## 1
Amino acid sequence: MSNIREIVNETARAPARVNAPSATILLIEDEACVRNLVTRFLALNNFNIVAAEDTRSAQAIWALHKTEIDLLLADVVMPNGSSVRPLAEKFQAEQPGLKVLYTSGFNVEELNANGSLDEGANFIQKPYRPEQLLSAVQAVLAGHFNPHAETLC
């Protein structure tokens, strides 16, 4: 819970965005509180965010904006227990330059073992600190994210 407070505090202190967005991110996050906080935090850090609460709404957003989206930031496991990975793969097949950063409260070993995540995928485990999320997003967009370079959770 302290991580949510950190995001709230950081977004409250952040100055209003004055530059054009550096990239457009499609966020898929089923928890409304997390979705809203991450959206606000990343927007204040110069990203254009389109947020979806589930895979169905993500597909609708994708249909309208797929050529504008640079990064998919997605909670791996949806409330019904399904993985968002097949949807991410579909999006990448349609837009080969699309970057993907997965997140989850489950650890990466569990996700790899049950097939929800491929080994070596870009992943940041919840809970994360705001600066860790920002760093991971920037690194994935730059093409040099290394999930093993530092402890992310």
## 2
Amino acid sequence: MNLWQNYIRPKNLTEAMETFANAPRPLAPIAGGTDLLLDLEQGRHSPVQTLMDVTSIAELNLLELRGDTLFIGAAVPVNRIVLDPLAVRHVQALTEACDLIAGPQVRNVATLGGNVAHALPAADGTIALLALQAQAEIASSASAAVPSSVNTRRVPFEELFLGPGKSSLKHGEELIVGFYIPIQKTLKVFVKHLRNEVEGAKTFRVSSCFKRIMRPQGVALPILNCAVWLERENDRIRDIRIAVGPGGGTPFRATHAEDVLHGQSATEKRIESAFEALLAQAQFRTSARRAGAEYRRHIVRGLFRDTLNSALERASR
């Protein structure tokens, strides 16, 4: 039995919106297909009439600097992110996360947009993007009267998720174009010089790190993963973001732990207090294929401390 009847490959966003408006339903976008095709074959996804292949849309394949952000298109394969010099320089946590997704053959075709759209609370790329404070660019029809016209908007990354496997995207109407990730920038400060205030430039050291715990045989699914982004000034953490998966039904930011560390020196006592705050806020879940909630609560201490210390060490170089 055919898993679909129509296969359409739009060349731009306008054609994609036309496909949304006119192609036989049910319809599903596809890029690498490493999750979707398996779900269709194994009955975990409802049948589709039309597959819309988005890999020929130029905007979805870009990886470039745009002002003070790094833009990564939704159809960019994760292995390209692993190897790209811009990504390695500016979003190390994301390159580390992408390098752990499945095996080499899968990474060559699996896309960052697919990793996010699947809406799993412990997806490696998703957890890294959350810590890096990404914004998602979403395309939709600009007008019901002209369904082929295109409107794009940016949304905070966490607004994409409603629950395990549930995305806030309007099915068959909206498409992830890509992700904007803030990158390190030079901050202007005023310093005293010869009794006069003069404007000078100061760069605070920024770093990020991603680590995960998985089964020894290298099963692709993580038991736990963690991403940390921080900005450091000498021994003080000026700003920090921590994401842990799965810490709840949606990708989880450990905001209480961030509050404990924000503006503080990274002493052992402070790090332990941050961990206790993370443990109190997270809602670890039991998964038959991954691990139990109590086991995750037991092992998250080492993962959190290891990821945080690596990010601190990188920012001190």
## 3
Amino acid sequence: MGCPIVSRGDVVSLGTTSDGIEVFMDASAFAADAVMIVSRVKWHTTFDGAIESGLMKMLSIGFGKFAGAQKYHSHAQRLGLEHVIRTAGRRVLASAKVIGGLAIVEDAHHQTARLEAVPAEGLEQREEAILALAKSWMPTLPCDIDVLIVDEMGKNISGTGMDAKVVNRGPASEYNPWPSLPSIRRIFVRDLHPDTHGNALGIGIADVTTERLVRGIDWKSTRVNASSSGLPSRIRVPAHFPSDRECLAWVAGTVGRIDVEEIRYGWIANTLELDRLAVSRNLRSAIADRPHVHVAEEIDVTWDASGDLVSPFQMAARK
């Protein structure tokens, strides 16, 4: 569109809310004649609310840059993140700099399904309705899984590397806090996506990983992200081994199954692409009759010379 990209860390203070939260706004945006927010509206990975990730969150945490994000997440431990997003976002709207926002809603395949221009007046209330629609379209895994294999994680996939509500993990990486979602007992993540540039926020969600993933972590960006989000548990490095085979052998012994043949495996490319799921044979009957589930083919689990899995999703992409 020929627009310049201006990315700076400078902020302007807009004063404090009635709760004592100092609100910040990006200095370049504050200097502009008018501001239009563009943001996806979707569920947040750490809490449930009528407002989660979207226009109000970008008005508050997005415009606040690092200084604001760090303070907002600290206040959220006392007040709740939804409350902080709403009150800080209202203060930014009161600056009269924002004329509105463009809400982007994605379907279950993460394709843009709806665009809605929302004026500043009534933006908060309209976003509640848009989020309800977005939640109704979000995909989930179809069944409980003992060991979920995830090929890749990264910031380009989810703010927490893996969507915590897909893999059912809480803010402190606690197991299965969302009762309406399938139970995932253990998670094995194989590698970082190249586009995350080493940011491994969310690795603490996993139970086991590979040494190659650990070697690829950029600790500077990962630590900064953990600090701004206020979630240090999400960068704890889990048990890690040289090969996929060793990772799976170790984690299989932790799921509580006496007979290893009873372990129920699921395998996905990442938490953004859930249109294809590989499952072990003992899960096939549990999902085959479900609406919108189609059993495409049977595959053999194959290994390379290093003891690493050959991903069926990479094979499918090559086809």
